[in-house]
Amino acid sequence: MGMVRRDTTIAVMRAIGLMLIILAHVSPPNILFQLRTFDVPMMLFVSGMSYFIAAKKNVSLVPYVISRFKRLVLPAWIFITIFFICIFVFNPEGFSNVRKLSVVVSSYALNGFGYFWIIRIFLIIAVLSPFFVKITDGSNARALIITIAMLLLASFMSLTGKGNGIVGKLLEQIVIPTLSYGAAFIIGYKWLSLQDRDRIKVFIISAFVCLAFLMAGYIIKGTFSYPQDFKYPPSLYFIAYSFAVSIPIYFIISKVQINSYCGSSILLFISSNTIWIYLWHIPIVEYFNRNDSEVNFVLKYAVAFFIPALIVSVQVYLVKNAIIRNEKMKFLNVFRG
C-alpha cells in the first residue's frame, strides 16, 4: 500500500472513530450503542499505525512527553477552563451538579464527569508508546504473545483486582486500561508490517474470542454478553470485538478510492482536529442529556457533530491567519489538532 493510501486510510478510520464516539453520547438505540463500542480501541489501533509510519523508534523521552502533553492535555485544560467559566457565569439550567470544586478538580485531572477519561487514556498510551515499540519491535510472533499476555492479565485483574480503595481505582482507571488499550496500540503498530494472511489470522482469532464469550455468556447466564459490558475496565472480549470490527473496516477503506477532493479534504480536516471537535461536542451533548432527552438521536447527533466541526473550522482559520501575520503567535497552535 502506498504512503498516500496509508495516510488516507488512517485519516478515514480516525474520523470514523471520532464520529462513533460522539454517536455514543447522543443516546442512540441500544443496538447502535452496542455495535459502535469498538470506537476507542480503534482510535488506539490507528495511533499505532500512525506511530509506525512516523518511524519513531529512538525518541528522546522528555521532549516527546512534553510534545504529547501539549498535544493532548493543554487543549483539554483550555477547554475545561472555558467550560467551567461559562457554567459559573451563566449558570445554565440542568448543570448545577457540575458546579462543584470536586468536579472541577477531577476534570483537570482528566477524570471529571464522564468525558475526559479518553484524553487520559490517549496520554498514557502516547507516553508509553516508545516502551511498547521497544518490547515488541522485531518479531511479530513476540509482539502477538506480549499482546495476548497483556489482554489476559487485564482480564484477570478486571475479574479479581477491582475495589473501592486507591489500589482498586488505580487498577480500574490506569493499569487495566493501559494493558488493554496498549495491546490495541501494539497491534496497530505492527499492522502495516504484516502480510494479509497474518492480518486475517488476527481477525479470525478475535472473532473466535467474541464467539466464545457470546456462547459462554448464554450458557452461564441464559443471555448474550455484549462487549460494552466489558469496557469499564476494558478486557479481552471488548478489545477482541474492536479488532473483529476494525480489521474489516481497515480492509474496506484501504481498497476504496476517495475521488472527491471535497470529501477527502473534509475527512482530513476531521482527522487532523479530533481533539478539539471532541472537546466542543461535550457541552452540546450534555445540554441534550440534561434538558431535551426526547429529541430524536439523529437530530442530536447532527447538532453534536456539525456545530463542533464548524467551531473548529473557524478556530483553525483564525489561528492560521494569526500565525501568518505574526510568527510569534505560534503558541496558538494549541487550538489546532
Automatic annotation (TrEMBL):
Superkingdom field: Bacteria
Single GO molecular function: acyltransferase activity, transferring groups other than amino-acyl groups
InterPro entries per the UniProt record, alphabetical: Acyl_transf_3_dom (IPR002656)
TM ranges: 12-32, 74-92, 112-133, 140-158, 170-188, 200-220, 235-253, 260-279, 299-319
Domain Acyltransferase: 11-314
Keyword line: Acyltransferase, Membrane, Transferase, Transmembrane, Transmembrane helix
Pfam families: Acyl_transf_3 (PF01757)
Protein name listed in UniProt: Acyltransferase
Gene source species: Klebsiella pneumoniae
